[in-house]
Task: inverse folding
């Protein structure tokens, strides 16, 4: 593979025996990219206004642009890829309430799911290069079902950090840590097992005494 400088902008053209020319741009500190990426905020949890999340019912309009980019990458299969994505965008609905989150979409085949906060085990935010460019994100929700894939996903949203923090707070509320001064769950289980042991011992003693008579 060879490299040749092609101008003061420090653009290098690299070519190989099997690859078309590839161009790598190295910008000076004084230059700015024409299409800047949207940088991620820090992942620290912050307080979120619940009413702002409850008001979220639709993905951002730029999700349609993202679907268009996906379809263009399929070249000849563009109509067959774009049409299902278009109808999914038009019918995609979200609903957050006090108990859980609902996701529904579909025109001919309607898909609806409702995931309670108590079932949530893990929450991830994923963003590919196109989503970062458009300022969108996807919040993936996993449950204890054991599947490697996400049980549900909130796609095409700008407030992905707020949604993640909101869901995490609700998940933490349904999985509280035991208080230091309260009774531990393990203590209640040990007491129950001890009472069962005593009952079995009493039954065994009664049966042995009757067999000797």
Result:
């Amino acid at each position: 593979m060879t490299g040749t400088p092609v101008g003061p902008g420090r653009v290098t053209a690299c070519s190989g025996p099997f690859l078309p020319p590839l161009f790598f741009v190295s910008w000076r500190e004084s230059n700015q990219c024409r299409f800047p990426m949207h940088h991620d905020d820090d992942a620290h949890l912050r307080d979120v206004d619940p009413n702002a999340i409850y008001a979220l019912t639709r993905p951002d309009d730029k999700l349609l642009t993202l679907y268009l980019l996906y379809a263009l990458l399929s070249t000849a299969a563009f109509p067959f890829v774009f049409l299902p994505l278009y109808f999914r965008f038009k019918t995609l609905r979200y609903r957050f309430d006090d108990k859980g989150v609902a996701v529904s979409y579909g025109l001919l085949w309607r898909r609806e799911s409702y995931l309670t906060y108590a079932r949530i085990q893990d929450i991830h935010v994923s963003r590919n290069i196109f989503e970062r460019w458009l300022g969108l994100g996807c919040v993936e929700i996993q449950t204890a079902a054991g599947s490697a894939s996400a049980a549900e996903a909130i796609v095409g949203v700008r407030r992905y950090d707020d949604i993640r923090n909101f869901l995490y707070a609700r998940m933490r509320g349904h999985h509280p840590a035991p208080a230091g001064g309260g009774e531990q769950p393990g203590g209640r289980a040990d007491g129950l097992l001890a009472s069962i042991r005593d009952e079995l011992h009493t039954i065994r003693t009664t049966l042995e005494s009757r067999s000797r008579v």
Remarks:
- DSSP finds six helices and nine strands in the chain.
- The chain has a mean pLDDT of 77.
